[in-house]
Write a structure and sequence with these properties.
Strand content: 15-25%
Shape: rod-shaped
Radius of gyration: 24 Å
CATH architecture of the largest domain: 2-Layer Sandwich
Order of helices and strands: EHEHHEHEE
Strand order of the largest sheet: 2-3-1-4-5
Number of strands: 5
Largest sheet: 5 strands, antiparallel
Helix content: 25-40%
Number of helices: 4
């Protein structure tokens, strides 16, 4: 496994400047890899679509949706039964259905949150945002500090380090695996 320093850039102009600065600093083309990262959920890594079944920020939202739907159905049915005494017809079913829908929505919204890095697991990851990624092989002495300095000076976001397979570029990049912050 190779030691890799990587950073995400929001602007292509900044990424191009970083590539040029890395080359000027003595990094060879075989030590630099640049590629685009799709937005979260758009890497087609899950057989039923998306990247994962649920991420760290949605973990448990299904259960709270079911609880909210049940409570909403109950409240809607009570209101609907009272209303059906006055209006008759399918009012009970309408209020029950609307109550279940509102309850399910409230249950999901109650559980959703922006996840913190310590919540991330392989089954419930925190995906990195879209942008251009520059990865630098940092196996040589002093390469990490030089690469980090250049990437930050050029406007990089999410600068981090990892261990990975490097063969003329970073071969085992996984957008679901966050980098260790530097």
């Amino acid at each position: 496994m190779s030691h890799i320093v990587a950073a995400r850039f929001e602007r292509s102009l900044d990424a191009d400047a970083a590539l040029e600065a890395l080359r000027r600093d003595g990094f060879s083309p075989s030590e630099i890899d640049c590629f685009a990262v799709n937005p979260p959920g758009q890497h087609a890594l899950n057989p039923v679509g998306g990247d994962v079944h649920e991420d760290a920020g949605t973990h448990g939202a299904g259960a709270t949706a079911a609880i909210g739907a049940g409570l909403g159905l109950l409240v809607g049915a009570v209101i609907g039964s009272i209303a059906s005494l006055h209006y008759g017809g399918p009012v009970l079913w309408i209020f029950g259905g609307v109550g279940a829908l509102i309850g399910a929505f409230a249950g999901v919204m109650f559980q959703l949150h922006d996840p913190s890095p310590h919540e991330a697991t392989p089954d419930h990851p925190i995906e990195i945002p879209a942008g251009r990624m520059i990865a630098v092989l940092a196996d040589r002495k002093g390469a990490e500090a030089r690469a980090v300095s250049i990437l930050r000076n050029c406007g990089a976001r999410d600068v981090g380090r990892t261990e990975g397979l490097w063969a003329n570029g970073w071969r085992d990049f996984d957008p679901r695996s966050p980098l260790a912050a530097i």
